[in-house]
UniProtKB/TrEMBL annotation:
PANTHER family: DIPEPTIDE TRANSPORT ATP-BINDING PROTEIN DPPD (PTHR43297:SF2), OLIGOPEPTIDE TRANSPORT ATP-BINDING PROTEIN APPD (PTHR43297). One of its GO terms (molecular function) is ATP binding. Keywords: ATP-binding, Cell membrane, Membrane, Nucleotide-binding, Transport. Belongs to the ABC transporter superfamily. Its main location: membrane. One of its GO terms (cellular component) is plasma membrane. This is Peptide/nickel transport system ATP-binding protein. It is found in: Cell inner membrane. Residues 4-254 form the ABC transporter domain. Pfam families: ABC_tran (PF00005), oligo_HPY (PF08352). The keyword Transport applies. One of its GO terms (biological process) is peptide transport.
Amino acid sequence: MPLLDVRDLRVEFPTRQGVLTALHDVDFTVDRGERLGIVGESGAGKSVAAFAILNLIGRPGRIAGGSILFEGQDLTRLSTHQMRRVRGDRISMIFQDPMMTLNPVLTIGTQMVETLKAHRRIGDAEARRIAITRLGEVKIPSPEKRLESYPHELSGGMRQRVVIAIALLTEPALIIADEPTTALDVTIQAEIMSLMLDLCKTHGVGLILITHDLAVVSQVTQRVVVLYAGRVVETGETARVVQDPVHPYTRGLLAALPGEGTPGARLNQIRGSMPPLTAVPEGCPFNPRCDFVEDRCRDALPALEDLDGHRVRCVRARDLASGVAA
């Protein structure tokens, strides 16, 4: 049984213009200790998927269908009280900006101790000992002194290390990292991603990494899900998807990486932009931006086609996989 099994997940947001669907029948699994990447542009539905897992979809948004099985429990059926036993304990989340995660008026030690005591019957001394151990694991120097620091006294990279340490406090089975290095410079990004990879391997923790950067996904994850306009358009083993992408959107994301361009020339880009939920086109939602579009792409939504474990939502999936181009 997978650690996490998301099936036919549908998330809706009722508005005055009608019901907008942010996720359409999304499927994916995460095994114990496995690292899964969820990739796509802003508006693809990546963060909505993460918030749905933790039952953090704000009203009037709602999970309108599907199931989220975690350790055998369907999280969509749990009460608010029952979810509190899962959220922050068995499943931890790392958000984009550590300054939005950490309380600016409490010391690091206070926040870590309170987190542990919220989920464990434990004394202050034992909680501080565990906090110091976790800070040491994320390579924070002099962890005993850092317990007395306030968030503003730490650099961005140090704050994100603290957030990772807090995520590990309760020894969760799964960590969801929502673009955890967006607010950091490039060199610190690499350090943080390397740290997260090492910690997940050491503790046997499952990881869902949400990002727009396929280069990061290729270094950290074992499988990847590519989202576009709230739908899975390609999924499979990361190495296979990155080395031999099939869906035109995935190809475009990879071609847009700086290393794929010609030195001195303009960077490659996918023309146009992600459609808003109020204006998703008929048929394949990527058809207005696709280099391989055909009339049938505008008529009906393609099904996910299985190419030996590599699943692609495109009417030309087999042609593109075999190298046939328009």
